[in-house]
Amino acid sequence: MDPNDDQQRLDERAKRQEWRHALDRSADLRAAGDPTDPTAVAATPPPPPAAPAPDPLAAVEPAPFGAAAAVPAPPASAAEPDPVALAQPLAQPAHVADPADLVLAARGLRVAFSGNEILHGVDLDAPRGGVLALVGPSGCGKTTLLRSINRLTELAPTATIGGQILFDGADVYAGGTDLNLLRRRVGMVFQQPNPFPMTIFDNVAFAIREQAKRRPSRGELMPQVADVLQRAGLWDEVKDNLDRNALSLSGGQQQRLCIARTLAANPEVILMDEPCSALDPRSTARIEELIVQLAGSLTIVIVTHNLAQAKRIADYAAYLLNGDLIEQGIAQQVFEDPANQSTRDFVAGMFG
Fold first, then answer.
1. Nearest Cα to 40, choosing from 148, 162, 154?
2. What is the pTM of this model?
3. Are 291 and 300 in contact, with CB atoms under 8 Å apart?
4. I need a surface site. Which of 9, 74, 106, 216 has the fewest CB within 10 A?
5. Tell me: the pLDDT tens digits for 273-299?
């Protein structure tokens, strides 16, 4: 079975879960394990055939931020260099945070589907503030790692997950985790824009209404909706037509509306899975500018196949290959002076 087909089905299921959650106004009041909560589908992965044993990798002290990890052998055949990957990096954004202040961390993370392990004991650090880019060739586990952060991976019934994802020091896979709260604090923007089939105003107002103790009026919501649309760089384009159906917007506008909808929940982290891959160059530039602006006030973790894009927007970078995290650190160091030969080959466009 084609892994891309599996990923597409998982994308569609995650989007359906998001839509069903948005329609359920009582979801915020239910615990994560409540079977009536659509976001808790498959929340408990199927048990392994043998009795679980402590993962030795989870107890190993991770290497310091910026250190190279052990390297698997590079692919036997090299592809022609990608001209995009050879683009020169621009000056780094000015909002680089303290690498010692971690908002997210993976420790010994292992993920398998139907017994086929995709991630092999990954240790990842995500400093608070700025943009962390996950890069690597297709099929290396970037998207699986991203989706594991706010527990979207477990929506696949065959998924099994080991190790830890620490968010502000707490393991998100611990028993009793409120998935609704987790997915508000760690928002998600998908590869394909997925606005709800309602007005622009209502798309943004949904998250605000969900968190209110009483249903606010349109007048009460308007200042917050306007503020979020301004932060998403969309206000000037839609302010005179907020009752327009969101599905009638262009692809780039829909993606910025999805970002605005995510921002309306006041997240601390936003996960982005190739948010520009379906957009034209002009819309891509707008999204990249927006990402850099937002990173001054929250943390963004982005998966991208576009190395030139990663060089333009990332403060930090993590390079994965065949399910292993090979190298991570300050983006300029990873892209210009990597410590690992495999990283150097990838950045030079020799494969991937």
1. 154
2. 0.74
3. yes
4. 9
5. 999 998 999 999 999 999 999 998 899
